[in-house]
Design goal:
The complex is a heterodimer of chains A (435) and B (160). Chain A is mainly alpha-helical and 435 residues long. Chain A has one domain. In chain A, 78% of the residues lie in helices and 0% in strands. The termini of chain A are far apart. With 160 residues, chain B is mainly alpha-helical. In chain B, 77% of the residues lie in helices and 0% in strands. Chain B contains 5 helices and no strands. In chain B, helix 1 runs antiparallel to helix 5 and helix 2 packs antiparallel against helix 3. Chain B starts with a helix and ends with a helix. Classes of the chains: A mainly alpha (435), B mainly alpha (160). Chains A and B meet through helix 1, helix 2, helix 3, helix 4 and helix 14 of A and helix 1, helix 2, helix 3, helix 4 and helix 5 of B.
Chain lengths: 435, 160
């Protein structure tokens, strides 16, 4: 059996066990182990998995993962989400669909403190949805806004998506994080545009709130925002100026938010433990996935598949943008069934060499990739954000949430097209970075 | 039943012990930066301490993550199958997971006791941390075994 055939059989086995429900990390370790045993030797295969697990679990740059998750947890405990929401409600109340706009803006600001989108969806589900209901917003618009807004955490730094992309492709995590800022603002703006457009077309979706807000009140409300801005400036500013590396930024950000919780006297042992358990669970999940991916990639490299695929793709007589469109469609389909992190871990070992061979900028592709992962969070039948939200808002059927989130999918695609036409949107900031 | 409860509790507390190290990790990294940037003084060995802390944190948390079904899988297909077939799928995939984790425990142990390296600055031996691969792996294995026993029990109950 040729190495390529072995690689294809291995990949088929991977997909088969995946669909039987085997945890993705263990499938990759298992199939990778079998494959290395076959292509190299059993003695070479035996120590690989244990070694890879230790090396992944003790690699300094990966300490950023629990620290970023901790930031989100602490920001939630500090009650920052509610304060942001109250502020933006006062500012955007008179606009069409004002509460939805406030929700998106709050999600975008919360995303500037948090790396995980599920936390944002859950928190906003309990804060924004009751408020939108009070003003008779259509349930579809209300839940759709929260589900879509929650995905912003994946793009706006600090973002787990970029960290994992950087880990898998050996790109600078700092540059990736910075490259997410402008696309993140752009995507939030297109979300808002879509809301305004929908409400203009059908004002019954979102009856406006008649209570006016004086300018003084608006100014006073801004105090709900400064913590977010300061922490974001320290963390991202530090990275941007090359003053600190992303891991150190994660530690400082987490510490700053911890101090804010202490100052606000919001620290309870229960909340602290909840944040820590959350950080442990997600970090273990991510690092086991990465360890699995490394084992599986080793097997794939032995099978020479990634090289064969990228030289085949490189030799195709089509525009590289056609290939890109195909990759994006693959992600759109996969996003329906896989969660974001697993999707990156499973596809990047093959797709990234192709993208590089086609001459696309790896940082730029990181942004495209992360936006496509975000789309996966809200596409049926499996959308993590929608599931989370359905757990929080029990009386809205899952289909309504999926349908409510669908218009926002269009703006994700639109932003991907924009970034493809004008790569500077993603690459301008990182190209100016201090380090 | 009691053994099951005991194992789950142990794994919960083991993860709890590991995760508490996250606070020192945060303080250590932040303290090191602040010291370096403001006072031109670093905390010696903070780099290697961070690595060891991460290893403890991750390896001790692996079993608890399985307990709360945190190791993600794809279940939209199996969710449509009959409960009996679902259980059979579970038994198969859990057995394969147990197999690969057994190899991790075995090889982790061999690697761990063979390891003689010490860390650069503080001369902390790496061996105990390497052995955590075997220990954390064993706890994870027990957790998977509990799930397997559950699934087999389900199948038996249906057969009766």
């Amino acid at each position: 059996m040729s190495p390529i055939l072995a690689g294809i059989i291995g990949s088929a086995l991977l997909v088969f066990f995946l669909f039987l429900g085997m945890p993705i990390a263990f499938v990759m370790m298992f199939v990778g182990f079998l494959g290395i045993g076959y292509l190299a030797s059993i003695n070479a295969a035996l120590p690989v998995v244990a070694k890879t697990i230790y090396e992944t679990a003790s690699y300094y740059p990966y300490t950023i993962i629990p620290l970023f998750i901790l930031m989100g947890g602490f920001a939630g405990n500090a009650g920052i989400t509610r304060e942001l929401y109250e502020t933006f409600d006062k500012w955007f109340r008179r606009l069409p669909g004002g509460l939805s706009i406030a929700t998106i803006t709050t999600c975008a600001f919360f995303a500037a403190l948090s790396g995980s989108s599920v936390a944002a969806s859950a928190a906003m589900g309990t804060i924004a949805i009751p408020e939108m209901r009070r003003f008779n917003y259509s349930p579809k618009l209300a839940v759709g806004t929260v589900a879509a807004g929650g995905t912003l955490s994946f793009l706006i730094p600090p973002s787990l998506g970029f960290v994992i992309y950087g880990m898998l492709t050996e790109q600078s995590i700092g540059k990736l994080l910075i490259s997410g800022i402008i696309p993140g603002i752009l995507l939030s703006s297109t979300f808002i545009l879509i809301i305004v457009f929908m409400v203009r077309k059908n004002p019954g979706l979102a009856p406006s709130n008649p209570e006016g807000v004086s300018f003084k009140e608006k100014l006073l409300a801004l105090k709900g925002v400064w913590e977010t801005i300061i922490v974001f400036m320290i963390v991202m500013g530090g990275i941007y100026l090359g003053f600190i590396n992303p891991t150190e930024a994660g530690a400082i950000g987490a510490l700053a938010l911890f101090v804010i919780i202490l100052l606000k006297r919001r620290l309870t042992l229960q909340n602290l433990f909840a944040s820590l358990f959350e950080a442990a669970r997600i970090s273990v999940l991510v690092l086991f996935l990465v360890a699995g991916a490394n084992v599986f990639s080793y097997f794939l490299a032995l099978s020479t598949i990634p090289m064969a695929v990228s030289s085949w793709m490189g030799g195709l007589e089509v525009s590289r943008y056609v290939v890109l469109a195909i990759i994006i469609s693959i992600y759109l389909v996969l996003g329906c069934f896989l969660d974001a992190i697993s999707m990156m871990v499973l596809t990047l070992p093959v797709i990234f060499p192709v993208v590089k061979a086609l001459g696309f900028d790896p940082i730029w592709f990181g942004v495209v990739c992360v936006i496509m992962m975000e789309a996966g969070l809200i596409t049926p039948p499996v959308g993590l954000n929608v599931y989370t939200l359905a757990g929080v808002v029990k009386d809205v059927p899952m289909q309504t949430i999926f349908r409510g989130a669908a218009p926002f999918l269009l703006s994700m695609i639109a932003v991907v097209i924009l970034i493809t036409l004008f790569p500077e949107i993603a690459l301008f900031l990182p190209s100016m970075m201090g380090r | 039943m009691n053994i099951k409860y005991l194992i789950r509790r142990i794994n919960y507390y083991v993860c709890g012990a590991g995760m508490c190290l996250l606070i020192p990790l945060m303080l250590l990294t932040a303290g090191d930066v602040v010291g370096r940037k403001l006072f031109s003084k670093t905390i010696p060995g903070s780099f290697e301490l961070s690595e060891y802390i991460l290893a403890v944190f991750i390896l001790l948390g692996a079993a608890y993550t399985q307990q709360v079904k945190g190791h993600v899988g794809v279940d939209f297909l199996t969710a449509r199958l009959s409960p009996r077939v679902q259980t059979l799928c579970n038994i198969l995939t859990l057995s394969l997971s147990l197999f690969i984790i057994s190899i991790v425990i075995w090889q982790g142990w061999i690697e761990g006791i063979r390891e003689r390296t010490v860390s650069d600055m503080l001369r902390i031996p790496q061996s105990p941390f390497r052995l955590l691969v075997a220990i954390g792996g064993f706890l994870l294995w027990l957790e998977l075994l509990l799930d397997l026993v559950d699934s087999v029990g389900k199948l038996k109950r249906r057969a009766l």
